[in-house]
Amino acid sequence: MLSRLWLILLCSTASCLSWGKDRERQSVLLRDLSTTALLTTENTFSDAQGNYQLIFTEYRNRTCRPEHFQKLRKLGSGARGQVWRARHDSGMFVALKVMHDKGPIAYKRIRAEEVFLARLDHVSIPKLYCSFQENGQTVLAMTLAEARDLFDWIYEQRLLPRLTRRVMVQLVNVLGYLHANNVMHRDVKPENMMVTEAGHLYLVDYDHAFMTEAMLSTPCGTLMNMAPELLRREPYNNGIDWYAAGLVLYEMVMGVHPYDRIRDRDGMLERAARGCPRTGDRLVDDLVGKLSHVQMRLRWSVANGNWKDIITHPYFLDGERTRHLRINKVRERRAQTVELENLQSHRTEFDTQASTRAKDAALSANIPSNGTEGSLAMKARMVRLQLSELKKTKAEILRERTTVDLLSKTETFKTSGIYQPIYTHWNGRICHKGRFSNWRQIGNGATGTVYYALAEDNVTVAIKLVENDELQAIRAEDVLLSRLNHPGIINLHCVFPYHDNVALVMPFIKGVNLLAKLSQGIDSGLRKSIMRQLVDVLRYLHSQEVWHRDIKLENLMLSEDNKLYLIDFGLATINGLDSSFVGTETYMAPEVWKSNTHSAASDWYAVGILFYELLMGSPPFQWVENAFDPSRELKKACTKGIIPLTGHNDEDELIQGLTLLDVEQRWGDATLETIRDHRAIN
Fold first, then answer.
1. Are residues 477 and 537 located together in one domain of the fold?
2. 565: which residues sit within 8 A by CB, 6+ positions away?
3. For residue 153, what are the contacts with CB-CB under 8 A and spacing of at least 6?
């Protein structure tokens, strides 16, 4: 029996080795096929095991393996995968694109990306070094572009005319190169264009690209940048790329997409039929009109057949001269038009009393609106006053509600499909992205990204961008951070919509979170100071019947002068309002694991775990991270209520009291003086 088992094992090992060699032989054979064959022969997309069949697996005559790369930092993530900054064992820095999608459709996209990045050769196209499999996922190692996507350039800082022209010249060149090789990109948009600080462009994401000389009919791409023939499901050629390039130019110049208020195909068709809106700059309008012509046969470079003629357009040859002055005026006029459209759309949202108050405010301003010179600016002031009054009234109506109402009445969360802010004003003025400049990313979390920015008078602020669908978390921070008042809680300045996100503006605190501080070392005096401040913040929160529900090192900020701040109230709730299973597993109390029951005692349990971590450098149950099912093992460990001793008598007494299994006996609000005066933190 034993010999038979060994025979089975040997056979299995041999078959695995044989399968691995077969995969490598298959990759070598596929490299000899033409690009068209690789993109269209679907039986080459996967191997016998159902995994994606790699092609370009070697770099410098060596097959790439996961162990050849050290992941350093995550650069971004999306629905289909992640991008990492990594270092090859040769010392070269690369970008690793990890794609976790599986199936025929996903493999077709991966094949397009792998083949085009490997075989196309242009300075504005990232180069593929190799591909490999890691934990069943396909990984592409490619050129690392120290850059940001053009979308961020457009919406976070104004693009100077010189940089706009430079980016546009490179876009025309790379599209010309692609089309000369019969390749259509089919998803040209700012999010797929990476721009370095020096202004160098990389056109990325080739999963929709295709190589053919014939017309195609399969619709693909991003709705807002689709050419009319794509929207009508008609056959198309590479003219769709030039159409999208024209829209990108408009967006760079104006700071807004020409059709950014339209979200459906019929609306896009109707608006596109009228042509791209005017920018007020004759040369820009002429170039955009030629690139984004409604009729495909009249569109550059389909009409003239030579993309190089585009580079000779006067727009690229014209100096800056007074262009920036004209564009600034056009931006102002565009902003006035948007405000007027917003006013019309918001009027239906409010009751008769609010509309009457807005009209009275406009009349009391005594602003003339006749045809005299300068009346456009006067009308714009009146529109701004009316729109501000309407929005303020909506926010005022909500602010009159109780905290419980605002956190529980989900019907108040949205207006016109986007989050409805409560606290919209700061220093007497409504907040919007134009009030902030010099945006710089400083942090990234599960629900959003944090930026450093400058407000008026060079006041530094932190702006947290949260996705618009995280409504409960946004509302919690909007309301609680505005209504709570404690020196250990960072108050909210204001909230405003920002594209598909919601921006929460608050004071900028220069410092680090406790997880980072712990890695630098925390002495006994600082540890005691941290605990005393945390106890005081928690005392205040619970006196307001607010449970934080996610106390951990990452959610505690320590300023340069060692002042402690409790942050991230996205999971916070009012006593008894919500019983969801939320929080960070390592800090969850036993009653949360057993019955999803959060209370003030659950926060105190997390404080006990955190104190242990400050003492020992790691949480008491970290060892279960290597278990087959970490969540289940962690639950078993913490529900036993056995916290290992640290060897410090006073500290162990406090930790054991804060982490008792019995919620009624656990130290907390009822024994606040005992905690506050305990020898372990004094």
1. no
2. 488, 489, 490, 509, 556, 557, 558, 559
3. 159, 163, 190, 195
Reported as a single tens digit per residue, the pLDDT across 163-173 is: 898 899 999 99
> Residue 130, Cα to own-chain centre: how many angstroms?
27
331 shares a domain with 310: no
Q: Of all residues in the chain, what percent are helix, strand and coil, respectively (each to 5)?
A: 45, 15, 35
Q: Quick one: average pLDDT of 381-400?
A: 60
Among 343, 377, 400, the domain-final residue is 400
pLDDT tens-digit map of 414-455: 776 778 888 888 988 888 888 898 888 887 765 678 899 999
Q: Strands (DSSP E) along 420-514, which ranges? A: 425-426, 429-430, 437-444, 448-454, 460-467, 494-498, 501-507, 511-513
pLDDT at 401 over 70: yes
Annotated binding site: 464
**Is residue 365 domain-resident?**
yes
CA distance linking residue 468 with residue 490, whole number of Å: 22
- Alpha-carbon Rg for the chain in angstroms: 30
pTM reported for the whole predicted model:
0.48
User: In terms of domains, do 166 and 284 share one?
Assistant: yes
* DSSP result, 517-544: HHHH---HHHHHHHHHHHHHHHHHHHHT
Helix axes 649-658, 600-616, angle to 10 degrees: 150
Q: What are phi and psi of 79, to 5 degrees?
A: -65, -30
Asked if residue 310 belongs to a domain, the reply is yes
User: What contacts 576, CB < 8 A, 6 or more positions away?
Assistant: none
* Residue 405 falls inside a structural domain: no
Give the residue numbers of the binding site for ATP.
Answer: 464
Query: Into how many domains does the chain fold?
Result: 5
For residue 447, the enclosing domain spans 415-507
Q: Is residue 409 part of a domain?
A: no
DSSP string, 228-273: HHHHTT--B-THHHHHHHHHHHHHHHHSS-TTTT--SHHHHHHHHT
Same domain, 42 and 130: yes
CA-CA distance, 316 to 302, in Å (whole number)? 20
Do 490 and 420 belong to one domain?
A: yes
Contact indicator for 117, 138 with CB cutoff of 8 Å = no
CATH code: domain of residue 77? 3.30.200.20
Q: In terms of domains, do 195 and 132 share one? A: no
Short-list 44, 30, 98, 91, CA closest to 66: 98
- As a whole number of angstroms, the distance between CA 542 and CA 574 comes to 9
What residues are paired with 501 via a beta bridge? 467, 498
Q: d(Cα 436, Cα 492) in Å, to the nearest integer?
A: 15
pLDDT score for 28 = 67
70: left (phi over 0), alpha (psi -120 to 50) or beta: beta
